[in-house]
């Protein structure tokens, strides 16, 4: 039995690995022993248990890394993960995404001579001011098995000189989770809770530091919201950090005065996906939400200057607009009029990516 160690630190990356144990048990009986390491990078302990219970996924090891600087976090993960690797002795370490825990686990695998698999390999924004972009580049430099979600990932890795035989276009494991929990998502009562009607509200999420962590960015966000709420109901699940910054920069009264705006705290996974399913459109700066809306063929306006997920634009329902308020309002009118672009779900975004990954791993490890 081959031992696989999945190392995960953030909620979005947990959503990418929910089906590994289930698929291994159903399709690869007695071939894999899969363990999950929870680094705790972005988790509120009070929310963690509910999150794991909802997705029916529970870590086998917890590193309990405290909130700190990026350097301290990465160093602590490397130190504590080494002990777990020595105890479990995995045949392969698997890391999803592009966060600090991804990089730390990749370095640990490399230094301990354990083969490394990277989920979402090859995604590139070509913006080196983004910490996530640096993490992606560094991790792929020491990856042994590249698991790719879209064609751009294959193209980027080939251009960077990665061996073609180690690149595997398997699809998107985050979509596997959406498919697996579709019934649970649709059964949520979040519309009634916030007195919302299907297709009659805009869902908005903004969390990147360029907007959420400085006064100028929040004033710009306020200006957009002031225009949106004249014609639209807006639902805005807001990160606690953003809420704190609004108060810190003396903008709380202005945000409180916005009518037709519903600000919530962070929502559980099922409730948030239910809102995506039922909204008219999404405005976001999130990477993962670009993919989730594309899978649901839901119009998405991404308020960033770039994206590492270009298939959501070339094939999917996403449009990249930066934070140009006039362009945002123009595209909202296009969506409202029913003349927004046609879109389709990208190749292999079908709920079976995890199975394809395990098939490759089974073949590679058993050579």
Automatic annotation (TrEMBL):
Q: Where is the UDP-N-acetylglucosamine 2-epimerase domain?
A: 29-361
Source taxon at top rank: Bacteria
One Pfam family name from the record?
A: Epimerase_2
Q: Name one GO molecular function term.
A: isomerase activity
| UniProt keyword list | Isomerase
Asked whether the keyword Isomerase is assigned, the reply is yes
Kindly give the PANTHER family that the UniProt entry links to this protein. Answer: UDP-N-ACETYLGLUCOSAMINE 2-EPIMERASE
Entry similarity comment: Belongs to the UDP-N-acetylglucosamine 2-epimerase family.
Its recorded name reads UDP-N-acetylglucosamine 2-epimerase (Non-hydrolysing)
Annotated organism of origin: Winogradskyella thalassocola
User: Top-down, what is the taxonomic lineage of the species of origin?
Assistant: Bacteria, Pseudomonadati, Bacteroidota, Flavobacteriia, Flavobacteriales
């Amino acid at each position: 039995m081959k031992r696989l160690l999945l190392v995960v630190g953030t909620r979005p990356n947990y959503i990418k690995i929910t089906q590994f144990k289930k698929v291994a048990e159903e399709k690869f009986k007695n071939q894999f022993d899969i363990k999950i390491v929870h680094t705790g990078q972005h988790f509120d302990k009070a929310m963690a248990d509910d999150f794991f219970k909802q997705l029916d996924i529970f870590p086998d090891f917890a590193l309990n890394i405290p909130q700190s600087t990026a350097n301290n976090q990465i160093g602590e993960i490397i130190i504590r993960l080494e002990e777990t690797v020595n105890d479990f002795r995995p045949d392969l370490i698997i890391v999803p995404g592009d966060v600090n825990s991804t990089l730390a686990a990749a370095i640990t695998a490399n230094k301990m001579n354990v083969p490394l698999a990277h989920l979402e390999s090859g995604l590139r924004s070509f913006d080196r001011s983004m910490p996530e972009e640096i993490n992606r580049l560094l991790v792929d430099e020491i990856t042994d098995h590249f698991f790719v979600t879209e064609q751009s990932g294959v193209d980027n890795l080939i251009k960077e000189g990665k061996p073609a035989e180690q690149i595997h276009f398997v699809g998107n494991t985050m979509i596997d989770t959406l498919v697996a929990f579709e019934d649970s998502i649709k059964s949520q009562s979040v519309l009634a809770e916030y007195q919302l009607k299907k297709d009659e509200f805009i869902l908005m999420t903004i969390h990147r530091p360029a907007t959420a962590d400085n006064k100028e960015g929040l004033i710009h966000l306020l200006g957009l919201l002031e225009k949106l709420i004249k014609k639209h109901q807006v639902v805005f699940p807001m990160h606690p950090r953003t809420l704190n910054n609004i108060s810190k920069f003396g903008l709380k009264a202005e945000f409180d005065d916005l009518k037709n705006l519903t600000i919530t705290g962070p929502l559980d996974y099922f409730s948030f996906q239910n809102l995506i399913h039922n909204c008219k459109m999404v405005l976001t700066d999130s990477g993962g939400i670009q993919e989730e809306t594309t899978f649901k063929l839901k119009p998405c306006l991404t308020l960033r200057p770039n994206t590492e997920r270009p298939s959501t634009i070339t094939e999917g329902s996403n449009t990249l607009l930066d934070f140009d308020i006039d362009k945002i309002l123009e595209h909202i009118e296009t969506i409202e009029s029913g003349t927004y672009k046609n879109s389709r779900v990208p190749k292999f975004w079908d709920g079976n990516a995890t199975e394809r990954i395990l098939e490759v791993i089974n073949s590679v490890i058993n050579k």
